[in-house]
Amino acid sequence: MVSPEALWWKPLHRYEKTWLIVGLVFCVFLTAMMPLWFVLGRQNVPTTTYRVDPLQYAVFVTRWAEANKVDTLNNIPVVAPAPGSDVYLLGRQWQWYPILKLQKGQTYRLHLSSQDIQHGFSLQPTNLNLQILPGYEYVATITPTTAGEFAVICNEFCAIGHHLMVGKIIVTE
Ligand SMILES: [Cu+2]
């Protein structure tokens, strides 16, 4: 038996130690930020989720859009729902249906679901992102605070026409 030398490892250089500590502190900071930002960040959309049949949802949204339509843009109905009401948006290959016309300062219950596969609801230029899954109806309570036109893009790759999937939400004064 030969015992190893007392100092069988290479002692860390001062710089290496410094960088290890910097890295560790940063890891701890980022890990702590995840739960902290969930609570303090005011970034979580209040949501409720229901199970829904994708085709039933599509039929319902189509009927609702036709009943409340005020205009048509690129063959997509423009819907101006009553302030404070439930509003519906449907994601499908490859469009967001319908175009919503909302009033600034009014609160709406925005229902979101997909007719086919997974899509990503991304409201531009704000930082609002929601996963849209078939079979799940996502309800977000929203209050538009800025008037203008907002683009809804799909940020979940949904095959060949993914880049064409651009919708619109109009907020009026
Ligand atoms: Cu998509």
Please summarize what this structure is.
With 173 residues, this protein is α+β, with helices and mostly antiparallel strands. The protein has two helices and twelve strands, in the order H-E-H-E-E-E-E-E-E-E-E-E-E-E. It has two domains: 11-43; 47-172, Immunoglobulin-like, CATH 2.60.40.
Q: What would you say this structure looks like, in words?
A:
The strands form 2 sheets. Strands 2-3-6-12-11-8-9 form a 7-stranded mixed β-sheet. The mean pLDDT is 91. A hairpin with a 2-residue loop joins strand 4 and strand 5 (95-97). It folds into 2 domains: 11-43; 47-172, Immunoglobulin-like (Sandwich), CATH 2.60.40.420. The chain has 173 residues and is of the alpha+beta class. It is built from 2 helices and 12 strands, in the order H-E-H-E-E-E-E-E-E-E-E-E-E-E. The chain is 24% helix and 39% strand. The protein has helices at residues 14-40, 54-68; strands at residues 47-51, 69-73, 76-79, 86-92, 95-97, 99-103, 108-114, 119-124, 128-132, 136-142, 148-154, 166-172. It binds copper (II) ion.
CATH architecture of the largest domain: Sandwich
CATH secondary-structure class of the largest domain: Mainly Beta
**Rg result:** 24 Å
Order of helices and strands: HEHEEEEEEEEEEE
Domain unit count:
2
Strand content: 35-45%
What is the count of β-strands? 12
How many helices? The count is: 2
**CATH superfamily of the largest domain, called what?**
Cupredoxins -  blue copper proteins
